[in-house]
Amino acid sequence: MHGPAPSGWLLVALCAATGAYCLLRMRSGVEEQRRAAGGEALMGFGMAAMAVPAAVFAPPPWAWAGYAVVFGAAALRALWAARTGTHHLHHLVGALAMVYMALVMAAAPGGGHAHGGDSGVPLLTGGLLLYFAGYVLLTGARLIPVPAMAGTSGAPAGWGDRPELARACRLSMGIAMVAMLLTM
């Protein structure tokens, strides 16, 4: 998933900043928002780590298996949470996409830093691209306009309780996922 260095660093910065904001969202007073923010922080930091340009850091071959295990566990958690609401299915798809990318990178010649080839886009990669492109468009449309909601005490909402910022965070990660899938 390693593309050109400048765009790789932009992707790392976007994902790391999104992960950091999701950590701030974990301070929310609403339990469900804290849980979602924790999963999104893991996703943001994991995507940032996977996007570091290969010229700077070439992870050891076992690192890709580590990513697959971590995101496989996140997928199981999302699957378990999906029994209470379908909105967790997006987290499931995202975690499984990360597992898929880690496995593809582990199987790629050169420790995961070879690109494409002449075989075209694999069906699963194309399906994930369509899903995340649609998700980005839908999330972007939902982002405008969202009024800021007051917190439970009637005071202005804190960083963790601002729905427009949470949607912008999800939009950023969706865009990053599309960029990562395009470089596969």
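the 2nd protein, sequnce then structure:
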Amino acid sequence: MTQAELFERAKKVSPGGVHSPVRSFRSVGGNPVFFKRAEGAYLYDTDNKEYVDFCLSFGPLILGHRDPEIEEVVRETIGLAWTFGACEPYSLELAEFIVEEIPWVEKIRFVSSGTEAVMSALRVARAATGRDKILKFDGCYHGHSDALLVKSGSGLAGEASSDSAGIGKSQLQDTLVLPLNDEVAVDKLFAEHGKSISCLIIEPLPANYGLLIQRKEYIEKICKIAKSHGALVLFDEVISGFRVGMKGMGEHFDIKPDLVTYGKIIGGGFPVGAYAGSKELMDLVAPSGPVYQAGTLSGNPIGMRAGLAVLKKMKRDNLYESLNVRTKKFTDELKSILNEKGNASWDISTFTSIFWAHKQTQSPIRTIDEIPAGHKEGFAKLFHSLLKEGVYLAPSGYEVGFFSHAHNDNITTKVLEKVRKALKDN
């Protein structure tokens, strides 16, 4: 059965034929690729065509697909249990590892997704402060719960409007939204609403609307403003956590957030999320405290053991340093090739093992308004040129790319050759 036939079948039984919107290829055009297996840095579609994968399931696979060491742990765990719905030692071991590694994490609660983690952490923030409002930023994504699926409104500064149908206005009234990279706006908003804001939530490395690398001074300033008004600071590190380093962006900025959310890498390729913070805050969560949150598959043994195996391997073999060096070398060479024709139109923003290809600008892109006109269309053309040659990027110009330990020098050399051929043929 062809890829197109599979997609037609899928559209008959699932909305848009997919189970998450970006997979539909709507942003880049054409039909999605159906994959049947993966190994290392490679994906294989249902026609057995091979692709070098830089999407990596949108971030979790820092060691690549089915790393042999992790696969051994997964197979062993499947032979023990699939789920308990009861206490087990595997979540305990992962929790102990994370608490030992990260100073501002004294207690942690595992859930099944980043959306669930953020939703629960904000509930803790509201309970701890007795306040209802939260402040988020345009260009940051915190999952698809109602109160967070919002954008800046066109009315009064700071008001929010729905970014999805089906969200009632009452769900948005306590969500305030500001642009990134503007500490003056944050100062002004807190001066007006500070007594009612429970929490400032931000991706310290925004990576859901392009890679919008923020200034250290900006992050420091807005955190200081929030805390001076009695609000908590929540770092959403679902993408950056354990990807940029063992201690994440908190260590990079030398800032200890009150609450932090994790996902992706801590599950080793399985559905896992977590929220964490000080003992004082986390003890507000049931059964210790009055903040209710529960989950049938929370602490799933397969994800717990896979995630712990990944983190232990990253630490044991000191893989962050080598991974970051190889990512920078690859992206520098990729940028050079993209601009070989002399038009110098492409740039690649890189932070550790995360990268984003975009049209060149005079200064770093820190807000969504600074993304160049025509970026979406330019990326779509590049995406399909590379896809034809067997290089798979995330199918949207606003998604970032990821490098893994499995992307060795032999593979990246082949990728660069494929890029040259793709550009020559177009």
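The chain has two domains: 3-54+318-424, 68-316. The first strand starts at residue 35 and ends at 39.
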